[in-house]
Amino acid sequence: MTECPVLRLLLICLMGHLIGNSVVIADEVSYAAKVAPLRRRSVTFPGGSSNRDGCEDSPKGTVCVVSSRCPGFNRNMKRCGWSNLEPKVCCEEKKLAPVSLPQNLNCGIRPKRNPSGALRKKRETAQDRLWRALQLSKSIESLPLNAPEPGLGLRVSKPSVVGGQEVEPLSYPWMAALDKKTYGTNFRFHCGASLISGRHILTAAHCFLKGEEKSPTNFTVRLRAHLKTGGTRYNVRKIEIHPGYNGRENYNDIAILILSREVSITDYVSPICLPQAETSRVRNLTGTTAHVLGWGHTSYGGVDSQVLLEASLPVVDTAQCNAAYKNVASRSFPRGITNYLLCAGYNEGGKDACQNDSGGPLQVLTNNRWFQIGIVSFGYGCAEPGFPGVYTRVSRYVPWIEEVMSKTS
């Protein structure tokens, strides 16, 4: 970025830089894409990510961070970007100030007790185990015996949690249900979502594919919901779809809803944390256990779950994910699995997001707080062996999220 020579031009330079960085261009993947239909339903921290963007020619051990985290910051330091209205500079990593969470925002904290006052416990009855076994057997019976031919048979769908188990009611206070108007004043469950502030909901852009589906009056958001039809309903004032999303491809599959009224933050309605520190944004999560939530189908082509389900999944290396999808690439992701996407799932299958889980959170527990690392986006069927689910990588979009929130708070 070219520095402004005088103070009165600083705002102009700032705005120009922010606008110039509002559209994310995904990295290219060097293989010829095959043509296949893809159904949508998710973001990752691949090992190849770097937090040295803009500081590559600086001494080793230097990273690009916001100036408030760099002790001894001065205007002679090399600038490497902006975060909202704060400059980012190349700073020695060993000197970084610790990251503190906003004092007025207790994000990512699950309640210790459910609304009835009973202590929250992790428990699974014999009936639960039988139900899980039946759902798993159904998903396995529906799998093809062999891998699909290149360019053929790729079933892409809005996802739902396959192989998951029911969560304790209201134990994830940021989980949201996005409902779509059917007729009159009736609404029906459409996608998953997550609360990221008192006014903002994070979800997938492909939940608003058609022109008429972009009208805020066609959607409502429910919070404090455990049953698929329960919770407190909020109207939507505005829908912000990422400017890089074109509806034909699965890249930049992220959107923010601005609610028409402020949410009252309680133990059972509170936001999930987003990756804020640069070091956490580029952290290699391969092998880390993540958790996906949803009310979607419990098997491919099956029925929605009536209660909120959770499944634990390992984050998969991006190169491995690219290899899995190479033979079934399509017009939906011609550049392959870029580092703006994240993959999670077991090689043997059995657990995954599925149809109608789109837009829901993929989350990890760090320092006793839950952080959203992904948004359910797409995959090959549901819980298919060898095909992890694909998520929008939230860390890559934090600057855009911050920009939208600053304009609509």
From TrEMBL:
UniProt cross-references to SUPFAM superfamilies, sorted A to Z: Trypsin-like serine proteases
Signal peptide interval: none
Residue ranges constituting the Peptidase S1 domain according to the UniProt record: 161-406
Entry keywords, A to Z: Disulfide bond, Hydrolase, Protease, Serine protease
Protease in keyword set: yes
InterPro entries found in the cross-reference section: Peptidase_S1_PA, Peptidase_S1_PA_chymotrypsin, Peptidase_S1A, Trypsin_dom, TRYPSIN_HIS
Highest taxon of the lineage: Bacteria
GO BP terms: proteolysis
Gene Ontology MF term list: serine-type endopeptidase activity
Protein name stated in the entry: U-theraphotoxin-Pv40a
Gene field: Pv_sp_5436.t1
